[in-house]
Amino acid sequence: MKFSITKKILIIILIIILVGMTLFPVIWMVSSSLKVDKEIYTIPPTWIPEKFTLDHYSDLFSRFHFGRYLPNSAIIAISTTIISVMLGLLAAYGFSRYSFPGCGALLFVMLLVRLFTPAAFVVPLYDMMRWLGLVDTLFAIMIGVTIMNLPFVVWIMKVFFDDFPKELEDAAKIDGMSSLRILASVILPLATPAVATVALFSFNVGWNDFLFSLSFSQTIKSMTATVGIASMDTGYKVYWGAMMAGGAFLSMPIVIIAFVLQKYFVKGLTMGASR
Fold first, then answer.
1. Which residues, at least 6 apart from 272, have a Cβ–Cβ distance to it below 8 Å?
2. If pLDDT is split at 50, 70 and 90, which confidence band does 264 have?
3. In total, how many domains does the chain have?
4. Average pLDDT, the chain
5. 58: part of which helix (H) or strand (E)?
6. Do residues 110 and 151 touch, judged by C-beta distance below 8 A?
């Protein structure tokens, strides 16, 4: 499909606008985190700090004890990613290879769960966690995040399994392999792009979770970094510089992981596009 020069220019302009809208909050966040307090409130605002400072990053760990929250965020992100990917892989393989009564309905229900806002699950989950004595624990937060991750993992991986050549599985079955061994030894080595995609998304959800962390945390022992950033709004003063520094700091692991896995990520997103 060929485009005229005018259409190409319009497409380029549209892409620039969309990229600009996407990067605007990020640039503003990083810029504000490097400004002194006085310059943050300057009108008109400045894009490039007149005086660079790292005081806000220092305050994260000295004044606001940000280091206490980071391990909790890491535990939740890593644990929910592992659990979601492992359970999601098994469920997706089962949905793809075996037919049973209610299969389609169950898949649809899982999709509905992902379409609901997470806030819809907070009250019933909190009541369950309180009954089980799990309020103010990382385990309660992990359950909430995993519930939101699983449907995504199942649907993405099911598309991959549906497109996977069944001839390879048949050959493995002739060699006497079980279904689980076929999944582990034959399919998963070829499913790296899809697994990397769902793992990155799952990690991102766990790392940036705020709602479940805020709802189920009562003391510092179970608070995450996102809740720690929110606590910088004391009601009497909002420490904008520290909040911006915290947001920039939290973004770094996601950016690094996405950069390392970008070739798998792009390929994983295009899987099933021809269907």
1. 159, 160, 162, 163
2. low
3. 2
4. 84
5. helix 55-62
6. yes
